[in-house]
Amino acid sequence: MKGYIKTKEHRKKISKGLKGIIRSKEYKDNMSKIISEKYLNGGYYNTKLKYNSIKLNREIYTMSSYEFKFAVILDLLESVEYYKYQPFYLKDEKTNKRYIPDFLFIMNGQKYLVEIDKYVGYKQSHGYNWKLKLAQNYCNKNDTIFLYLDLDEIYKFLEKNKDNINFDNINLYKQNNNNPNIPIYLSDIFSRLKFNINMITPDLKDISIPSIEINNISSRKFKYNNNNFLLSIYNNFWSCKWKNSRFNPSEAIKYNVTFKTIINNIIKNKLSINTNNIINQIKKERYSISFFPDSWAYWIYTKYLLPNNNIKILDVSGGFGGRLLGFYHFIKKYNIKNYKYDYIDVNTQSTNNTKILINKLNINNINIINNKFEDCENIFKNNYDLMFTSIPYYDLEIYNNIKLDDIYKSEMGFIKNYINNIFKLNSKQLIINISEKYKYLIKNDIIKHNNYKLKEVTSIKLTKHPFQKTSNTELFYIYNK
What we know:
By secondary structure, the chain is of the alpha/beta class. Helix content is 36%, strand content 21%.
């Protein structure tokens, strides 16, 4: 009857009624065939875990979390040209039994047949060795390699082939965005792999010069930041962190629970899971420190620097190259041939990466100094057209294990030894960038401005971060001599 549900008592009666009935060999064979065919290609919807396969372009129903995870891996590996879940059944003619292997796939032209178990040896110890023999016989006859895997063996297989995963294009798209197992298994996979953030350096011709027609200044107006270009060069950025953060970005994605949160939020926002979106989410989760955009620097140079030859620029905290790349836009825009740019930073890794940056940009006359600027006697003897820097916050950030509070000891020590020395430099203009929350650092009464006068303060209002009650504002203090 329509809508009738069998009760436990009803099933018992059916079982009792069928007791003693002898089924023919043909009947048993036919029933075995019907049941086996229900499972083929992951089509039996009553199994545990649903997964939208990218390469199969269809929904499959896996029997276990191990099989689900292996399907994800086969989708991730670019070297896997084709795969099928529960591809066919093999029949043991002696016992009239059928067995369905878990996967068949082709990788680098070689065919593989896969059986996945709780542990390797499970089938032998539970009387299912005949299944393994059927699988091995099939492989011997069809030039196929048989893989008998448990979870440890799955990860060994993944480790061996991890170079075939393109982390810049992880094609697990939005059709999986309601599947809670995707972030669980991806975080497990990537944390075991010790996934690293390595960005491919974009072609230099793709580096855009930002617009300078900006009114009512908001960070939203700067549409063309080339941060990914800089991040591809300054890999040490991923080992820097906020002082009170548990992890730097590289550590965060190697920690299973944290990376699961990152993947979950990408899916929640209906974005593709790929390196670029992983990096953006890491920033949103506040694991990464501040990054100075080249578009801001280009805007400052265009606003306060005359496009003449023989320009001399100084940056006493060069950082991750944002202001240097902004200067590159400036000299290209105005075809300036004669210039000098002194880049100084205490971080050895940053200065080494800046050498890579200037080689990529193919620009000359960039003087890179790895030191505290206040210890560089020569720069205090030079004359500059512009000193432009974004000052570090001595007690907030850790730059590749460099703690500025170890150098300056206290906030007052930072003001006396770092900020005061900026005003001892010889430059027509000083431009100091600082967050509005920390403007007190450069408004302190103990600062001696020497011959510099504050001309104006301009600002860029930042987009409000989800973790903050109000949006921050970046200030630019402009001093003339």
